[in-house]
Amino acid sequence: MSSLAEKDRPIVQLLLNTGTCPRCVLRFCCVGSQMLYRHPHKDLLKELQEFVKNTQEEGDTVCVDVADPPCKRLRLEPREEGADELQHNGAIPQLPSAGDGSAALDSSAGSVCNVCLGILQEFCEADFVKKVCQKVNSADYQFTSFVFSVSLPPQLSVRERAAWLGMKQQMRNLGLPLPKDDIVQLKEAYKWIIHPQLSEELGVPADGKSLFEVSVVFAHPETDEECHFLATTCPDCFKPAKNKQSVFTRMAVIKALEKIKEEDFLKHFPCPPSSPKNLCDALEIQCNNGAVFVAGRYNKYSRNLPQTPWIIDGERKLESSVEELISEHLMAQFKADSFNFSSSGREDVDVRTLGNGRPFAMELVNPRRIHFTAEEMKRLQQAINDSSDKIQVRDLQLVTRSAIGRMKEGEEEKTKTYSALIWTDKAIQREDIAFLDDIKELKLEQKTPLRVLHRRPLAVRRRLIHTMSSEYIDQHHFRLHLKTQAGTYIKEFVHGDFGRTKPNIGSLLNRTADILELDVESVDVDWPPTLAD
């Protein structure tokens, strides 16, 4: 049961007299009934006026009986010792008169609330709900539920504190106790009112775990400077931060309000606060869908194609990349704002990736479209493959964020298979390279290669060549098939990188060796799942 009891009568009258809207009155009385907040504003105000006007017998209540979950409450000040033990002495002292009921109703109905600045007034009405839903529908998102978020001006916390202290002073002057020191949070009360309306208008349920977010950002320029006195009294709470336009963030203001002494607050801010001239502004109404993740495997058949855009000192070196050839189609179909590409390792621009291909994943940020059938994913895969002869994609599928972790798990313990075309300066015969086939679990020490030192830290990496198999071609060429630990620098294993990789093919053959071509033949990561053609 959520209700207003006789002990709440002086609180209700004091708040109404100072320009507080009926829904904020309910918040200050810690009313947890969601249904009460959803009553029309004028009806609720009339009910509260009647409640104040008619002295009720002890135990009488004005209420709507509903089974609601417990509400979140905001503690406005530390509980004073013994506050819970204070009781009425039976007689209710004379409160300031509310005046003529209809006149009070008319003035209250037309004024902006001195606490919520109109958020629990105009912005709970059907016209604003329709405005939000028009914005959502025009953005053309796919969604089956929504989560609603709201950003409030930080000065609302100052006004809540001021209203509380003003009420506390008046109750003390009347010799009445103030049995509560917390209130229902404004955000929660607002969502109680707005959720059912949004849900009905959009035709989908509100769900706190939904990936589709509808957000409203409120501002109130008229009262923006009301927080500024806190920077003088609590300067350590307001530190400049990256990506913050102002130091007066909601959390900084709340932190300062927790520290400031009551007497200092009363010196700087009127209690209760005065009613503003203007309502809040709904600065932004935004929609955002949670990211969608697509995975697959790609083959790269070109020796002139980087995995990601190749840009050096702001200058683009090659016109395309594996990432772009794939993302172009995914971005268009999912209608996303941006993407993040990742893969199980990477190959150099002049290295082909053959066999079953290299696992990759793409995060599509804020997609408008999120539902694809298996058949639609097949058609999308075919469109990527038809667009270029440089790459091919297979096993394209939707995956979860957590599943992507499997691509990176134990990456360095995985194995990769390569085929390298090698040149030697001195002539070789078959028997000169035959011993390579017998080498197993060859341990390497590889200093960070010179060619990647600009983007990788200097370190000595220990890697394994599990097996090798040589294929003689002529006196200066042979092909070497290698199965290695992932993360092995194959080019450096062949030519030695000026002695930075030991041992190497040159040192094993006792002659200069270099690599002419390199192909990745398999990446032994069992992900993503293979799909039937």
From TrEMBL:
One biological process term in Gene Ontology: tRNA pseudouridine synthesis
GO cellular component assignments: mitochondrion; nucleus
Cited Pfam families: Pus10_C (PF21238), Pus10_N_euk (PF21237)
EC category: isomerase
Subcellular localization(s) per the UniProt record: Cytoplasm; Mitochondrion; Nucleus
Annotated keywords: Coiled coil, Cytoplasm, Isomerase, Metal-binding, Mitochondrion, Nucleus, tRNA processing, Zinc
Residue ranges occupied by any Pus10 N-terminal eukaryotes domain in the UniProt entry: 113-287
GO molecular function, one term: metal ion binding
EC numbers for this chain: 5.4.99.25
Reaction catalysed by this enzyme: uridine(55) in tRNA = pseudouridine(55) in tRNA; uridine(54) in tRNA = pseudouridine(54) in tRNA
Boundaries of every Pus10-like C-terminal domain copy: 293-524
Family the UniProt entry places it in: Belongs to the pseudouridine synthase Pus10 family.
Protein name from the UniProt record: tRNA pseudouridine synthase Pus10
Organism: Sylvia atricapilla (blackcap)
The gene coding this protein: Pus10
